[in-house]
Design a protein that fits this description.
single chain; 475 residues; alpha+beta; Pdz3 Domain; 2-enoyl-CoA Hydratase, Chain A, domain 1; 3 domains; six-stranded mixed sheet; five-stranded antiparallel sheet; 21 strands; 21% strand; globular
């Protein structure tokens, strides 16, 4: 067995040498010696280390060690992690369609048992009567007491078409109800609005009087452009006059979706380009067909907006199609290629190029970059609105409340999102709204505030008052 393994290592060594020979005769001897050190080290560990070591773990550790010398975005994707990686990119999986919370390994959850945060509209769980606040008492007849969220996810997800039975304790009920569900392919919506309506669809108009739309793009999955296009078509039918595109906390995703979405809002010109050491320069340019124009746009970004969200923000900012409001973005402007290994059972995510915005500037923040260097996407002049740590925590709590699919909509809140407020103020000025929204939250069941002061105020102060009225704040 050991002899066979030595032959495998030897074959690996020979293949590596043949590969590096292509880099030139002068480097051949040096590369040969380096590979020899690697193979000898591997054999010494395998033969003489005090304890038996899994050989695959050694190889994977060596790969990860090499990648750690590069950048934080290059990584090795093991066979065990590959399925999860593909699921994260596609934003779809086989399951029942619920968001859950519960006890975890460090006990940080506010729930002692697995609890449904929200069902996803149209999914098996939603159609089966599972609702926000329900406690999952059993999965396939086994108690969930002490079960972590990750363990529950493994039990609930599976091949579409298969059955799973869960015991649900509805809020206010005394007996557990057994609910049999058929797993389905769950596509997580990446384009979301301000709140769920009773029919399970998102409300995208944040100001029904002045027709200001609000969209959150959480990821750039392979469905995002189609989702956004469908939402925009519906908003045009409702007379949309302005748009807030919220890219805060958006970590990025597929480059193809970023270029397609940017192309929706500009008629011509450069969207983005990529440049690398050993890859040809690539460029993406906009086309006029399918452009959504005729309305102002405000993009919300923060320090966790990265990658594809920075491409869209930089493109629309450089073309003066939108203003960027909020905070400087993350500065993740590098291109990763996913290279299949082992006939597709594992993969290598390797940085091969960097993104450049239409102006030609590099988006990426290097390891040694300083705060005064040029990287990321900065808010437009006069539109920087930084959140404090307390505000970030308050925003997260607010969104958790509003993202629940529950009859009657979300609860009333006195939270004020200063970044959204700044966007509304800017857009009201651009569309020259004739009056404050006297009933801006009628669809949300909130009482409108009377505008008794605006006529006597300067225009800038009138817009500020309109925003406060829109958000339900005292003047």
């Amino acid at each position: 067995m050991r002899k066979q393994w030595q032959q495998v290592v030897g074959a690996f060594f020979c293949i590596a040498i043949l590969a590096v020979c292509a880099s030139g005769a002068e480097k051949e001897d040096k590369n040969y010696e380096l590979m020899k050190v690697f193979v000898n080290t591997f054999e010494q560990i395998d033969r003489n280390y005090v304890q038996d070591v899994d050989r695959r773990e050694l190889i994977e550790a060596a790969i990860e060690g090499m990648l750690n010398k590069l950048d934080q975005y290059s990584s090795y994707i093991s066979p065990d992690d590959l399925a999860h990686f593909k699921k994260a990119v596609d934003q779809e999986f086989g399951g029942i369609g619920i968001q859950i919370d519960g006890p975890d390994n460090v006990g940080s959850s506010r729930f002692k048992r697995l609890t449904v945060v929200s069902p996803l509209p149209g999914t098996p769980a939603y159609l089966g009567g599972v609702r926000a606040g329900d406690t999952i008492m059993e999965i396939e007849g086994s108690s969930t007491e002490g079960l972590t969220v990750s363990d529950a996810v493994k039990a609930l997800t599976g091949k579409p078409g298969t059955e799973v039975t869960i015991g649900i304790l509805h809020e206010g009920a005394e007996e557990v109800e057994q609910v049999k569900l058929i797993r389905d392919l769950i596509q997580v919506a990446t384009v979301q609005g301000d709140w769920y309506k009773d029919d399970g669809t998102w409300e995208f108009l944040i100001d029904t009087e002045n027709k200001i739309a609000y969209m959150r793009l959480t990821h750039f999955s392979r469905h995002s452009a189609n989702e956004l296009r469908e939402a925009l078509d519906g908003l045009r039918e409702r007379g949309m006059r302005a748009l807030i595109l919220d890219l805060r906390y958006n970590p990025g995703g597929l480059l193809t979706q970023a270029t397609e979405i940017a192309d929706m809002f500009i008629e011509s010109g450069r969207i983005v380009s990529t440049k690398g050491r050993n890859t040809p320069e690539r460029t993406w340019d906009a086309k006029k067909d399918g452009t959504y124009s005729g309305f102002p746009i405000a993009i919300l970004a923060n320090r966790l907006s990265a990658s594809a969200s920075e491409i869209v923000s930089a493109c629309l900012q450089d073309h003066e199609r939108a203003v960027v409001i909020g905070e400087r973005t993350w500065g993740k402007g590098s291109v990763q290629n996913v290279i299949e290994l082992e006939d597709g059972s594992s993969a290598l995510k390797l940085t091969t190029a960097s993104y450049h915005r239409p102006s030609g500037k590099n988006i990426h923040r290097g390891r040694d970059a300083k705060e005064d260097d040029d990287w990321g996407v900065m808010p437009n002049d006069g539109f920087e609105v930084k959140f404090t740590r307390e505000e970030r925590a308050e925003y997260q709590r607010y969104r958790v409340e509003r993202d629940v699919l529950k009859k009657g909509g979300p609860p009333e809140s006195d939270y004020e999102d200063r970044q959204v407020a700044k966007a509304i103020e800017y857009l009201l000025g651009k569309i020259d709204a004739p009056s404050a929204a006297e009933k801006p939250k009628k669809d949300r069941g909130e009482k409108p505030a009377a505008d008794t002061k605006s006529a006597a105020l300067p225009e800038s102060e009138r817009r500020t008052l309109k925003v406060r009225l829109l958000l339900g704040r005292p003047a």
